[in-house]
Amino acid sequence: MPVFNVSMKIIKKNIPIMLIYIFVFVMVSMIVKGITGTDDSVSTFSDTLVPIAVLSEENTMITEGLIQALSDVATLVVIDDTRESIQDALFFRAVYMVVRIPEGYSDAVMNGNPIPLETTTIPGSTESVQVTLQMNQFMKLAEMYRIGTPDINEETLVNSVLEKLKNTTQVTVAKANPEAIQGDLMPFFFNYLAYSYMFIMLLGVSTIMLVFNRKEIKWRNACAPVTGLSKSLQFLLANAIFAFCTGLLLVILCLAFDARNIFKPNTLIFILNAVVFGISVLGLSFLVGNLVKGREAISAVANIITLSSCFLSGVFVPQAFLAESVLRVASFFPTYWYVKANTLIANLTHFDFASLSEVLGIFLIELGFAAAFLAVSLAVGKRSSQRA
Amino acid sequence: MIVKVNQLVKRYGDLLALDHLSFEVKQGEIFGLLGPNGSGKTTAINCILSLLKYDKGEITVFDKPMKPEAYDIKRDIGIVMQDVAVFDELTVYENIDYFCGLYVSDKKERKALVEEAINFVGLEAFTKFYPKKLSGGLLRRLNIACGIAHKPKLIILDEPTVAVDPQSRNKILEGIVALNKQGATIIYTSHYMEEVEQICSRIMILDNGHMIATGTKDELKGMISLGEKITIETFEITASQIDAMKALPNIISVDEQNGVLTIRSAKGKNNLENVLETLKREQVSFGKIYSELPTLNDVFLEITGKALRD
Question: If you measure CA to CA, which chain A residue comes closest to B84?
């Protein structure tokens, strides 16, 4: 199989250039893993104690009880009871709230006519909400015990309220779809695979085609007793092996970067999508190889096609952030459908036919692109042969 | 008959590249296609190889009609293209192995053939070189090795010595004769008449797609009236002395330029003797004197009215 052997030799000669793009893929993936891989999602809950100041104009069981209740949700800071020091404390965020307990507050509570507490907060601040809630809770419970127990004294009331306030709720952060959060990186790696895969394929296949499309070589080969079909099949086999090996390497890298998700069914479908995308890119590479006439132009053309289709299709920026008009243009590239399929695959939780039907439909579109590229490529090749 | 071309017509738009061209190549001969650039030599070769479609005519190779899908015929043809057809990405050895591999699938047999071809063209020291590292002459030798490695019965060489240094040219010409001696029939195209004259057993002269003459070199030279060309370097010569030369029998023309006298005479005996006697009688003092037989260029000149190198 001389055509096959020469094709493989040409690919081997271009491996150093292709490795640059594998290296870029690895580097970008590592950077993304470094940024995104650190789990910054909220997984635990702990109370935040907001600094507040309490200025009490009386010292009773009730005021002491209220201050104790507030100390459970806030850090009490001592400040001078002057207008200037209160303003300074708030301005410099030494405290987020100043609570003033007026004189006669305790009597008012015990009489069932509670007077509101005077509070001063930083405008627009939300940090003191929990303190406000705690104050309201204290007041409501006190009122409830007072009504429920008519002859209750201050000490019993305060103890009962404080006892009740000790009942706290255990907070655990529930993740709506923990697996989806864990799998966040996989779609990115597989999306980004499109860039490296497309460039390497365009570069490799175009280079081989350029060599075999040189008029002298083409004519010399035409003089040999080898059928056109045999030459085409050898050529196709070499390129298919090249596409497979490149795809395999990139998929292995994707899996290595997000190893914890390897055994999920989603991963298998990601890989299938990459295979289907590889076929469409192979078709595109044949077409470009037939159109590009100079060795110097290959790299430039490959870069233009790869970067433009990847930018428009949402490889670098999620499709959700792209304008409708941009996505409409992008839909003429297989990359758009590949990325779209990856997004769908990432959100798959069920793997029955109904759930997979949309993804399978996209696979067919990608294969349609491959067939179209191949047909146009054959037409262009035939036309250039006739011209020669 | 190895090759038979009958009434071949090939047009490129309005340009008639081959005008009812007919010729035959017999087994064991070195058949030369001689003509200036653009005379139709390469077009004729490309038609024979079915690389070009032609408008009219018939071509048979090994007594079978030649078609693009005639793979059994192609198996026995070796082609050395005018433009070097090798892969820049492959070494000398790999290139020869590739082209030989198009004809010979057996690896062991191919290895022996490739090595033989390398030795034949004298590229033993360059097997690991890439074509871009080779000189023009070595590159042409590689081109030849790629065309002959599979030991074809018919070898077509299309201007294989273009832009080649004299040493490589001699090596190539010697090789072609050796291949012929080994049993290969050869079609050799060139616009260098000396080469064709040196190695070809039969020659066809082409001009503007027409065959203007065909035969052995002696037959071709016999077709023209020029028998001898005498060149004399004189120190001084007068018009009357030139007229005395012109009056000699068989003389076709006498030209004088910068003291160099060129006398063209028709076929006949004693032409040089008569000239020498006249020089003595007319007391013309001269330095060197040469006598040349007609060349293929003279044949071309007499038939077409223009020099072959034009």
Answer: A216
- For B226-249, the pLDDT digits (tens) are 778 889 988 888 888 888 888 888
Closest CA of chain A from B216, distance in Å = 29
Q: Which of helix, strand or coil describes residue B263?
A: strand
H/E stretch holding A31: helix A15-36
C-beta atoms of B94 and A9 within 8 A: yes
- B150-189 pLDDT, tens digit per residue, is 888 999 998 888 877 888 788 888 888 888 898 889 999 9
CA-to-CA separations, B164 to B139, B161, B167, B170, in angstroms, rounded: 9, 5, 8, 10
Domain count for chain B: 2
Are the CB atoms for B52 and A219 separated by under 8 Å?
A: no
Q: Do A225 and B102 touch (CB under 8 A)?
A: yes
Domains of chain A: 2-40+178-387 (no CATH), 50-165 (3.40.190)
The verdict on B128 and B190 lying in the same domain is yes
Q: Are residues B180 and B242 in the same domain?
A: no
Burial class (CB in 10 A: 0-12, 13-18, 19+), B209: buried
Instruction: Tell me which H or E stretch contains A349.
Output: none
What range does the domain containing B240 cover? Answer: 225-293
| Token pair of A30 as six digits | 């590592």
Whether ipTM exceeds 0.90: no
Q: To the nearest whole angstrom, how far is the Cα of B86 from the nearest Cα of chain A?
A: 7
d(CA B67, CA A137): 101
Three-class SS of residue A54?
A: strand
B160 and B56, same structural domain? yes
Residues of B in contact with A224 (CB under 8 A): 74, 99, 102-103
Structure tokens at B123: 């590229």
